[in-house]
Design goal:
There is one protein chain. By secondary structure, the chain is an alpha/beta fold. The protein contains nine helices and 14 strands. The chain has a seven-stranded mixed sheet. The protein has a seven-stranded mixed sheet with strand order 7-8-9-10-11-12-13. The protein is globular and about 50 Å long. Counteracts the endogenous Pycsar antiviral defense system. Phosphodiesterase that enables metal-dependent hydrolysis of host cyclic nucleotide Pycsar defense signals such as cCMP and cUMP. Pfam families: Lactamase_B_2. It catalyses: 3',5'-cyclic UMP + H2O = UMP + H(+); 3',5'-cyclic CMP + H2O = CMP + H(+).
Length: 266
């Protein structure tokens, strides 16, 4: 079948994505209660009991809110690096030792024919990561919660068929917003979140003729709008890479899942 994926929900209030290759189904983060996760999966005709593993990006609550309950209920192994596990052990309750799997940053795990590689990113967490999924020639990259796009990250996610990429905020909306300056400074900093403009600029450096779709993810409900994110990214791409006519900018939602996206098998 190759890789297919759905962003179950994405935003400041919670995040979760499913990647499926016909052999295994992997969940990236569990940012909602187990009950909410079940409802989101049901939208995509997916049984929560069918999940074979959970990959954790970092320990912030909008990514692990339901992690412990979900893993215990469905007896699912959790993959995270050692520093993240230190934080998870403080937050998610008791997990069966057999389900506590250490995946080093930069490490590769193979789930049948699906290969998963993690890579370090810049965020104010213990040791945050993004993930790249490989199935034959297909490549899917998932990267949110990063203050800036380093050259190493660009190298890891370049030439992807599809990306789930953070477009967290509009800089002007954030600057005039109601948050205290200390929080604004955190979001704008190198360990904060990627703006629409920064995402668009980075995209121009990493996309190729192979790149067909980019899912704009982790939008702030206070300091961004999906139409604005799409317009900003599209304008930057059209200015810097007008030949990229094949690229589709796709929405994600804080309250519902995206349709399954199936990567080309060519």
């Amino acid at each position: 079948m190759g890789i297919r994926f759905t962003v179950l929900s994405s935003g400041s209030t919670g995040n979760a994505t499913v990647v499926d290759n016909g052999e295994v189904k992997l969940l990236i983060d569990v940012g909602f209660s187990a009950k909410k996760m079940e409802l989101l999966m049901k939208e995509r005709e997916l049984a929560a009991s069918s999940i074979d593993g959970i990959l954790v990006t970092h320990e912030h609550s909008d990514h692990i809110k339901g992690l412990g309950a979900f893993a215990r209920k469905y007896d699912v192994p959790i993959y995270a690096n050692e520093k993240t596990w230190v934080e998870l052990d403080r937050q998610i309750g008791v997990i069966a030792e057999g389900n506590k799997r250490v995946m080093d940053t930069g490490g590769v795990e193979e789930f049948g024919s699906l290969k998963v590689e993690s890579f370090g990113i810049s965020h104010d967490a213990a040791e945050p990561v993004g993930y790249v999924f490989y199935e034959g020639e297909q490549k899917l990259s998932v990267v949110t919660d990063l203050g800036y796009m380093s050259e190493k990250v660009k190298e890891k996610i370049s030439d992807s068929d599809a990306l789930v990429l953070e477009t967290n905020h509009d800089v002007d909306m954030l600057r005039v917003g109601h948050y205290p300056w200390s929080i604004k400074r955190r979001i704008l900093g190198d360990k904060g979140h990627l703006s629409n403009e920064a995402a668009g600029e980075a995209l121009c450096d990493i996309m190729t003729n192979k790149t067909k779709s980019v899912y704009m993810a982790h939008l702030s409900r206070d300091h961004n709008l999906m139409d604005l994110a799409r317009l900003t990214v599209n304008n930057i791409v059209q200015e810097r890479a007008p030949e990229a006519k094949q690229l589709r900018l796709m929405d994600t939602y804080f309250d519902r899942s995206t349709k399954w996206d199936v990567l080309d098998s060519e």
